[in-house]
Design a protein that fits this description.
This protein is mostly helical. The chain has 14 helices and no strands. The longest helix has 28 residues.
């Protein structure tokens, strides 16, 4: 029981940090472009994970093997996923981008059908209908019969980020690398690509100390420490569902922080759509569905 309590504490820590990142994204993107934020955050996260790899005595393992997987995985995460995600946050209110991004678990269930030969249960289908009905409510801001999208490209970016993230985890199902080593290798591949894109595009510009602090925060906590805390939680719990359900605490806290810190008005359409998305995710995690 003490082991479970410790794992749940790690899980709550990860969820608490993830609850702040939507606000951190919007704050940072007020100063810099998505590519600049991505490069700065990736650099900080790469340095943190590299230090931890060395501290845990995994340096030789990290250098010796796993690079064939990292060659493509690093282009998906961090490069493609975070660039598309930050582009969504740059165009949409934080509450909408955050809520739409929560559909990645359902996207993974549907993509597992053609990629892994898995079958969808009736609950999976119902969960998908509920969740993507929520997406529609958010995308139309409650005008569900008007086809009036406030920012269609922003919605496309947000949904594409869920597809990339779901594909990343499905393709990594057989990844034998130690998670910390794999994450550091991915960022080692991704960082030069991001540097090239940055120099080719906006270049390196000083945006002031608040922008630097926001970029460091995103890299340190969203991509670094939260990942490690969640890994400790999943590895230390007796039953995965005990910590996986903690993720449902994050969206309401994120909404409150976006409202009180960034001044975003709380839209009824966001609450309605997010409620449908979370209901779909909860339905997908029912024990009966896990068995079926």
């Amino acid at each position: 029981m003490s082991g479970d309590r410790r794992a749940i504490a790690f899980g709550l820590g990860a969820v608490a940090l993830w609850s702040t990142v939507a606000t951190a994204f919007k704050f940072a993107l007020a100063f810099m472009s998505p590519l600049e934020l991505m490069w700065m955050a990736a650099l900080v996260s790469w340095a943190l994970m590299g230090a931890l790899v060395v501290h845990r005595g995994l340096g030789r393992v990290a250098l010796a093997s796993g690079w064939k997987t990292a060659a493509w995985a690093g282009l998906m995460n961090p490069v493609a996923y975070y660039l598309v995600l930050f582009a969504a946050y740059d165009r949409l209110p934080g509450q909408e981008a955050m809520a739409l991004n929560y559909t990645w678990a359902l996207a993974m269930a549907f993509l597992a059908v053609p990629l892994l030969g898995q079958r969808l249960s009736r609950l999976d289908v119902l969960a998908g209908v509920m969740a993507y009905a929520g997406v529609w409510v958010i995308a139309t801001r409650g005008r569900v019969f008007d086809m009036a999208f406030e920012d269609p490209l922003g919605v496309v970016f947000a949904l594409c980020s869920t597809l990339i993230w779901a594909l990343y985890w499905l393709l990594n199902a057989r990844d034998a690398r130690e998670p910390l080593v794999g994450q550091w290798q991915n960022f080692t591949i991704g960082l030069p690509v991001l540097t090239f894109l940055l120099l080719l595009g906006p270049g390196v510009t000083w945006h002031g100390w608040p922008a630097l602090g926001a970029g460091v925060y995103v890299g340190l906590f969203e991509m670094g420490i939260a990942f490690l805390l969640w890994q400790l939680a999943v590895n230390g719990i007796s039953r995965t569902a005990k910590v996986s359900n903690l993720i449902f605490l994050s969206p309401p806290v994120s909404l409150m922080l976006l409202h009180f810190v960034m001044g975003e008005p709380l839209l009824i359409s966001t609450f309605t759509g997010l409620g449908l998305i979370l209901a779909g995710l909860a339905l997908q995690q029912l024990p009966a569905n896990q068995k079926g």
